[in-house]
Amino acid sequence: MFSSIRRSISRKFMVAVMATTFTAVFVSGLANLAYDINDFRTSVLEELGSQADILAQVSTAALEFEDKPSAEATLARLGARPNVHAAAIYRADGTLFVSYTSADQPQALSPPGRPSATGHIIDGNDLHIFRPILRGKDKVGTIYLRSAYPLDVRVERGLKMFGAALAVSLAVAALAAGWLQAAVTMPVKAMTRAVRELITRRDFSQRVSKTTEDETGMLVDAFNSMLAEIGQHAARLEQSNVSLTHEIAERAKVEQALNELNASLEERIAARSLELAKANEQLHQSQKMEAIGQLTGGVAHDFNNVLQVINGNLQLLGMTLPEDAAAQRRLETARYATERGAKLASQLLAFARRQPLQPAPTDLGRVLRDMDDMLRRALGETVEVETAVTGGLWNTLVDPNQLENVVLNLAINARDAMKGHGKLTLELGNAMLDEHYAANEQEVVAGQYVMLAISDTGCGMPPDVVARAFEPFFTTKREGEGTGLGLSMAFGFVKQSSGHIKIYSEVGSGTTIKIYLPRSHQAEEQQFNMAVGEVVGGSEIVLVVEDDLAVQATAVDMLTALGYRVLRADNGDAAVAVLEEHARIDMLFTDVVMPGAVRSPELARIAKDLHPAISVLFTSGYTRNAIVHGGRLDPGVELISKPYRADDLARKIRHVFANTRQVEGLRQASASVAQPAADGAIGAMGTRAEAQRADGLRLLVVEDDPDNRMLLQELLGMLGHQVRAVGSAEEAAAAFQPGCFDALVTDVHLPGMSGLELAGALRRLEPSLNVVIASGSGEVAAPEGGHPYLSLPKPYQIDRMDALLRGAVSMA
Question: What is the pTM for the complete model shown?
C-alpha cells in the first residue's frame, strides 16, 4: 500500500515539475518572440524613416527648381543600400517627379503613380513609407521608399531558438525532478515507519527522529508536539477544575452586584420621579404660557382696536385744528399715550409669542450701526457705548424691526442697572451650539447661530432674580419705573425666532445677555420702511372690511382724507356681496380676525378671483393663525398692525399698489407678446416681437422679486432676447463674464449689494457694458466717466423697454 502511494506521489511530483517548466518556458519564449518581432519592425521603420527624412531634406531644392538630374542623382545613391528596392519623389500636387528602382529588382516593383497618405504600409515582405517634403510649414512634395521586410526569416530563426531552449529546459527539469523526488520521499518513508511502530506498541512517549529542517521536519515537529499534548491531558483537566471554581466565584460577584442594584433601585426611582416632576413642571409652564398667550391675544386685539379708534380720531382732529397750538399740544400728548399703549400690547404679544413676525435675511452688524445714534440718545452721554463685530459675520433670519426694539429695551434696562453711569458693550460674532449644549438647554436646537451679547457694568443680579428675570411683570425696579415686560418680550421674540437667550450675571460684576439667532445663508434683503417716504393719497377704490364699527369709521375717514373712494363691509359675507356687486375695486383692506363664515384668507382668495388685479392689505392687532404660521407671516402677505398712523397707512397702501401694478404690468405685457392679434396695438406688438427674434440681445437681468423676475424673463424671451435672470447682485457677479452679455438690466434696490454698486463693479470688468437701471423713483444719476446708465421707470412699458435695450446696444 505504501509503495503504491509513494509511486503515485512520485508520478504527480514529476508531472507537476515538468508541466510547470514547460509552461514557464513556453510563455517566456512566446513573449520573447513577440518582443523580437516588434523590435525588428520598429528598427526597420526607424531606419527607413530616417533615410526618407534625409532624402526629403536634400531633395527640397531640386523639387522646387524642377532639377530632375539632381533629384535622380540623389535617389541613385540608394544603390548603396540593397534593402531599398524602389524610391520616388512626388510634387505637391501628387504627380511623379523622379523615381528609382534597384537594379536587381524587376520593373514591376517601380513606385506607384501617386503617393498615398503620409505614413507606412506593410505589404507582405515589403515596407512602403511616405514622408512629406516641407519648406517651413508648407508641403512642397512627398518622398517614397520601398524596402525589404524579411519578417518571415526573423520569425523562423526565433522559432528555432525557442524550440532548442524548450528542449534543454525540459531535460534540466527532468533531472531536477528526480533529485527532488528522492529528497522528499525518503523522509516521508521514515515517518511512516515510525507511525507504524507507535500504533503497534501504544507507547506515546516515543518521538520520531528529525532528519531535515524543511517542511518535512516541521511535520515531524508537529507530530511530536501532538504526542506531548496527549501527555499533558491530565494537567489540562486539573486546570479545567480551577477554571470552573473561578467561574463559580464570578457568578457570586454577579449576584452580589445584582443585590446592590436592587438596593439602589429606590434611589433611581427617586431620580426618575424628579425628572418626571421637572418635565411636568415644564408642561405646566408651557400650558400656562399658552393660556396667557390666548388671553393676551384677545386682550391685545380689543385693546388695539380701541387704540386705533382713539389714535385715528386724534390724527383726524389734528388735521381739522392745524392753527390751534394748544390743541395740537394736547393731541400730541394723547397720541404719545396711545403709542405707549400700543407698545405695551406689542410687548404682551411678543412675550406670548403671538407677534406677527416678518423675518428676512439680516446683517446684524448693519442693524447695530443704524441704531448707534438712537442708542446714544437713549442712554445719555454718561454711558459709554462700545460695539465689537467679528469679521466674516454671518447673516441671520430675523425680523429686523422687532430686533431693534429688543436691543433698545435691553440697553435701557442696562442703563437703569448702571444708574446712568457705566459702559455698555454690544458684541456680535458667529457661534456653534453643539449637541451637548442643546441637550442641557430647553428648546435649543444644535447648529450655527449669530450671537449678540449685550453687557453692562451695572450692579448685577443674584441667582434668584436671574431665575425669574424672564417672567412677565417681574421687576426689581420701584413702582412706576418699569412694566416688567422688557426681558419677557425679548425672551418671547427670541424663542419665536427659533433662537436662544441666556443671562449671565453676578452681583457687583454686571450682566451679560447673550442672544443666539439662527444663521441664514441668504443675502440680506432691503426692507420697506413705512416711516420714510412721501405721504400721498390716491383716487383708487378701497373696500374696508372691519367688524368693529368705530374702527371701521376711523379707517374710512382716514382713507377718504387721503382722496380714496371707500366702500365698507362689516364682515366677510358682506364683503363678498360688495365684491360681486362692483365691477372695479382696487384694494381689499380687511381685518384679519372677523366673525362670520368667510374668514379673511378666504375673502382675499375670492377677491382675487373676482378682481384679478386687486391689491390686498391685512390689518389686525392680533393675527392668530389666519395669515401667520410658525410665528411668521405667510409669503406674499402684506400687513399693517393696529394701531397705525395715517401717514404709515398712506405709505403702506402706495407700497402695496406699486408691487401689485408691477406684477400685473409684466403679466399683461407678457400676454400681449405671447398672443398675437389680428388688429390693434397687441397684434402689432406680437408681429414686432416675431420680427425682432432674429436680432435678440444677450441680457443679464437682476430682480429680487420672484414674480417680477419670472415675468420679466418670460417677456424678454418672447421679444427674442436671450435672458439670464438672477435674484441678487452677488449671483449676477458670479454669472458675469466679459463679452458674454450685451446689456445689464438691474433693479436699483437689491438684497445685499445695490444695483448701482453691481453696475459699477461690472463696468470695471467690461467698461463698454450697456447698463439699464430700473427704478420707481425717477432718473438715475450718471456715473463720472464712461457712458451713462439708462433709466427704465417702473412699472415697465414693453415698447419703451425693448426700444431702450436695442437702442443702447446699437449706439454702442
Answer: 0.40
